[in-house]
Amino acid sequence: MAPRHSRIDCSPGCPVEAALGLIGGKWKGILLYHLFEGTLRFNAIRKRLPGLTQRMLTAQLRELEADGLIVRTVFAEVPPRVEYSLSPKGRTLEPVIMALKAWGDEHVLKEAQPQAA
User: Fold this and answer.
1) DSSP assignment, residue 113?
2) Phi then psi for 36, rounded to 5 degrees?
3) Are 38 and 1 in contact (CB under 8 A)?
4) Edge to edge, what strands does the sheet with 70-75 contain?
5) Of 62, 10, 52, residue with least CA distance to 30
6) pTM for the complete prediction?
7) 50 near 29, Cβ under 8 Å?
8) pLDDT score, position 20
C-alpha cells in the first residue's frame, strides 16, 4: 500500500508536524497503545474502545496501515479472521506513546483528581 503522504513541506517544526500527522487525532495513539500488548482482532479492539464507532475504527486502522505503522493480516477462513499488529516502524513509536501516557498520568489525571483537605 502506498503511503498517504507523498510529500512533506519542511519548516523548522517539520519533523514534529510529520510525526503528529501520522499519530495525531483522537484514536490513533490509543490504538497504537493497545497494540503494544500484542496482536488484536478487530472486535477485541472495539471492546477496548467502546466510544469508537466501527466506521471510525476501520478508517483509523486503514490510515495506520497505509502509513506503515500496523500490519493487517487476513486469514482465509469462514468466517474471515483479521488481525492487527504493529509493524517494526510502528513498534518504534512505543517510547513516544509511553512518554505521552506518563505525561498524561502526571499532568492530566493528577490534576483532574480532587485534592484531599
Assistant:
1) S
2) -65, -25
3) no
4) 40-41, 81-86, 70-75
5) 52
6) 0.81
7) no
8) 87
C-alpha span between 38 and 44 (Å, rounded)? 11
Taking only the tens place, the pLDDT of each residue in 39-91 is: 999 999 999 999 999 999 999 999 999 999 999 999 998 988 999 999 999 99
Dihedral in degrees, nearest 10, Cα atoms 9, 14, 20, 22: 40
DSSP string, 9-59: ---TTHHHHHHHHHH-SSSHHHHHHHHTT--EEHHHHHHH-TTS-HHHHHH
The residue assigned the cell 488484536 is 40
Give me the percent of the chain exceeding a pLDDT of 70. Answer: 85
List Cα–Cα distances, 71 to 80, 98, 99, 108, in angstroms: 16, 20, 23, 31
